[in-house]
Amino acid sequence: MTHPFSHNPADTRFLDVRDMTKRFGGLTAVDHVSFHVDQGEIVSIIGPNGAGKTTVFNMLTGVYTVDEGSVTLNGRPIHNTSSQTVIEAGIARTFQNIRLFKGMRVVENVLVGMHLEKSYRFFDALLRTPRFRRKEAELTVRAVEILRDIGLGDHINDYAGNLPYGAQRKLEIARAMATNAQILLLDEPAAGMNPQESEELMEFIRHLRDIGYTIILIEHDMQVVMNISDRIYVLDHGKRIASGLPKDVANDPQVIKAYLGETAAC
């Protein structure tokens, strides 16, 4: 799979976030947070409820502006650009609440993620010109390849709303993959899953890493976080309070204090 921006091995940082800050009136939701993600890593961002994790994702994807600080991908600044520009740069996300088109077929949901590559004009689509049919055929082939690669090849023509819950999560990730992303931002992908589904999700995320994706994860399921992450960053009240390997973070006194009274939640 080709990406719009290839990583230069000489670069020290793939995704580099420096002093990222977001304020809402008098509230500082994210306070000078810095972190980096290297290509091919699975990195988790955790912390108690209200720590600022989703706000970080919203700034990374252009939903919120960055009041202070910077975000660069392959050395290219992407903060305070549009969500469309962020997608074109190679970052795509999923959401805590599944946002599939449940009345559409599985392959059609993936095709929605490919809208950036639709080079035909409105009238081509309206009149179903040869240009339109040729491009739609090319995109459909690629959509089917993605679905087969992630184990949904037998469900291509099923309606999305009829898939089991875990498969719906996979489909949402497939739609993010269809944008030609380099980095996938997964917002609580294990939410609502039973232990077996969570185990299958971990294997799936590892597979995504093995086929070339970089993963940034927000997740409440600490079993998933501790077993899948290469590195972890911990936020509390908008500030970064710890970072490191899972075993180091789990034993960090500040992390334990931040989680006091929380039951396996971030």
Put the structure in a nutshell.
The protein has helices at residues 53-60, 83-89, 106-112, 122-127, 130-149, 165-177, 195-210, 222-228, 246-250, 253-258; strands at 15-24, 27-37, 42-46, 68-73, 76-77, 91-93, 183-187, 214-218, 231-236, 239-244.
Please characterize this protein's 3D structure.
The chain is 36% helix and 22% strand. Helix 3 (106-112) packs across helix 5 and helix 3 (106-112) runs parallel beside helix 6. The chain has 266 residues and is an alpha/beta fold. It has helices spanning 53-60, 83-89, 106-112, 122-127, 130-149, 165-177, 195-210, 222-228, 246-250, 253-258; strands at 15-24, 27-37, 42-46, 68-73, 76-77, 91-93, 183-187, 214-218, 231-236, 239-244. Residues 1-11 have low confidence and may be disordered.
* Number of extended strands: 10
Q: Would you tell me the structural class of the helices and strands?
A: alpha/beta
Distance between the ends: 33 Å
The overall pLDDT average reads 87
Q: Helix fraction?
A: 25-40%
Largest sheet: 6 strands, mixed
Which residues sit in consecutive blocks of at least 5 with pLDDT less than 50?
1-11
**Beta-strand fraction estimate:** 15-25%
Q: Can you tell me the overall shape?
A: globular
How many H/I helices? Answer: 10
Cα radius of gyration in angstroms: 19 Å
**What is the H-and-E element order?**
EEEHEEHEHHHHEHEHEEHH
Q: Order of strands across the biggest sheet?
A: 6-7-8-3-9-10
